[in-house]
Amino acid sequence: MENTVTTESKSSIAVIVVNYGTADLSIDAVESVLARQHEGHPVEVHLVDNASPGDDAARFAQAHAERGWGERVTLWLERENHGFGRGNNVVIQALAARAAPPDYFFLLNPDASLENEALAILADFMDTRPQVQAAGARIERPNGSPVAAAFRFPGAGSEFGSTVSFGPVTRLFARYQVAMPADLPRQQVDWVSGAAVMFRLAAVQKAGFFDPDFFLYFEETELMWRLHAQGGEVWFLPEARVGHEAGAATGMQGGRHRSKAQPGYWYDSWRLYHVKTRGVGAARRIALLKFLAGGLNFTLRRLTGRAPNLPLNFRKDFTAHVLKPLFGGEPGLARPDGKTPKAVWLQRQ
């Protein structure tokens, strides 16, 4: 008699989509999960609305009723914009408090969708490797071409080389570049994109969940730093495929805003990441190096007849959100003014 594997015996997965003002995209993301079979893995979906200013919450309630989502999809209609990490914590902490929590949770950006049985691929891989605490998928543009989804941890070398952004210097520091090749084969890495990543729930609970000080950006990087610190591994699996319209939910692409100044919360998160992972002394050195690199960017590109390619208002914003808190304030505060995160943070600056 053949042995069969029942759905109940397979590892369970909770998918979390955190929305802010992108209702149509978020509904499509949920539908992309419900449309897959997941090769027998029990899958539940959690859709969080981060107090969107429009009618997103009402539209989700309507979609839940009209599309027959039923018990497969749980809505979390929040009254505060928690940001990314705290928005996910709302669900993750509730899952961890269950008598029988799911084995894994998968973060899916609202502007992303499953392109194959990515959840099953990631879960099956992690089932056989208990030391793996997070695994990321290949992320593709709408035309199918991959984008960088696996990374090295940021440090002094990467900050200097990327900020100078001048051919010979950039090449000299290429080995420190944060983004790894988009066509990277399966391998262990420092961290993977939070747009499509599966975490082992017990490992994240042990690490302390997402750090609530981060509002947006660097929160998944810092969490995966802590997973490494507790002996875990992070892997990139290109056979798991997710489509992603990068920046649709935030206006950011490649760590920079598409058209305007870098949002203040980006600089806050940059500072917090370096303080929390490397300490205040190292964060100060890295910040000074980045500020110096910004000056070199301006000078070298002007000398070669090109416009500087720094974010708009780089010197002013970096000074206000990074240098002043690091050298004259409270380096570990979420914001230089010490206020707690509020919905007004996420403005389309």
UniProtKB/TrEMBL annotation:
Pfam families listed in its UniProt record: Glyco_tranf_2_3
Name this polypeptide is given: Glycosyltransferase family 2 protein
GO molecular function: glycosyltransferase activity
UniProt keyword annotations, A-Z: Glycosyltransferase, Transferase
Protein family according to the UniProt entry: Belongs to the glycosyltransferase 2 family.
Domain of life: Bacteria
Membrane-spanning ranges: none
Species of provenance: Paenirhodobacter populi
CDD domains the UniProt entry points to: GT_2_like_c
InterPro entries, per the entry: Nucleotide-diphossugar_trans
